[in-house]
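User: My collaborator sent over this chain with a note saying "see what the structure looks like." That's all I know about it. Can you take a look?
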Amino acid sequence: MSNTIQVEQHELWYEIVLSRPDKLNAFNDEMHAALRTALIDARDDGARAILVTGAGRGFCAGQDLGDRDPSQGAPDLSRTVRDNYAPLVRLIRSLRCPVVCAVNGVAAGAGASLALACDIVVAAESARFIQSFSKIGLIPDTGGSWHLPRLIGEARAKGLALTAEPLDAKRAEDWGLIWRTYPDEALMAEARSLTASLAEGPTLGLAYTKMAIQSASNNTLDEQLELEADMMKICGESDDYAEGVSAFSEKRTAKFKGR
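Assistant: Without extra context I'll predict from the sequence alone. Here is the result:
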C-alpha cells in the first residue's frame, strides 16, 4: 500500500486516511490509485461502513498543481477527470455501505467535492469548504457541479463556485451541505462512533436506503414508488428485518448480522 493512504481495519469497518499532510493531502496520481485500491479492498472484504478523513491540519486541498503545471505544456485535464476523479466518485456512490467523511480542516477544490460525494459528512468547527476552481480558471469537478445545486440550490451553488468564497463548517451545516459539525477535539471520536454504529446496523437496508435516495433525483414519483416496492421486498426477506422486528417486539437491542 502506498504511504499516501493509511488504512486501519476494524472488525466491521475501515478507516481510510488521506496522508500527504505536507501537501494538505492534495491529490497526485499515486494517491488516487491508493485511495481507490483501499476503497475496493474494503468493499471486497465486506466492510459494513467506511470512514474517510485526512491527516494533519487539512482534509484535502484538491489536485496537487505541481503535477499539472501548464508551463510544462497544457495538460489534458479531461484525462485527469476521466481517469481519476470520475472513477473515484462513481466508486463511492456505488459502494453498498455507508461512507462517512470527517472533514478535519480545509476541503478545497476536488477535496470539497470528494467530501460531498460521501454519504454522511461531518466536520470540525474550524473546517472550511472552498470551491477554489474559479481562482485558476476551472470548473467544479469530482461531481461538484452535480452535488452542489442538489444539496444547497442553484443560487448558493453558483455563489460559492463563481466567487470561491470559503464556507465555514457551521454555515455548511445550516445550509444542508453537510450533516453535522463538532468541536475540533471531538470530531474524530464522533466520526468513529458514527461509523461503528452504522457498521452494526442492518447492512442490506442501509445499502438500499443509499441507493434509493441517490436514484430519487432522476426518477419520477411513480418510478421511485416502484423502486421502493422492489427494494422493500428484498429487505423484507432479509435476516436483519426479522431480527429488527423480533428485537422491537422483545424490547431489546437488535443484533444485526448484515444480511
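A starting point for your reply to your collaborator: The mean pLDDT is 95.
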